[in-house]
Amino acid sequence: MNVLIDTHILLWWLADDRALPDVARTVIADPATAVVVSAATVWEIAIKQAAGRLDAPDNLMPTLDDNDFDTLPMTASHAFDAARLPLHHADPFDRMLIAQAAAENLTLVTVDRRFTHYDVPMLPLA
Questions:
Q1: Where is 3: in which H helix or E strand?
Q2: Among positive and negative, which fits the CA dihedral 119, 87, 12, 78?
Q3: Continuous segment of H or E residues that includes residue 109
Q4: Three-state DSSP state, 7
Q5: Domain CATH code at residue 70
Q6: Segment 12-23, tens digit of pLDDT
């Protein structure tokens, strides 16, 4: 399975937070799973961290490597697709994840129910 993890899923994983659903924890821990982190997620964390609104690892990139997570760049095609999505969700970072998951055939891992309004594969967490 190839999964694209949302920002809160990544942060919960890195903090070993009990808020991370067991299904997500199992899938991410499975060596057969390719776990992908979007550049949009890295960007979102860096912006919120710089503004003092988020506690996250200062060494995020090496931490992603240490966890064997792949990174996915944002392309012009992803940006175009994100902009054309219906406005069920206004957050630009989340809209980018939705567009990337659809374009790259990745299963999204999130607890954000607004993602269900889009035609994109999602890991059932409930």
A1: strand 2-5
A2: positive
A3: strand 107-109
A4: helix
A5: 3.40.50.1010
A6: 999 999 999 999
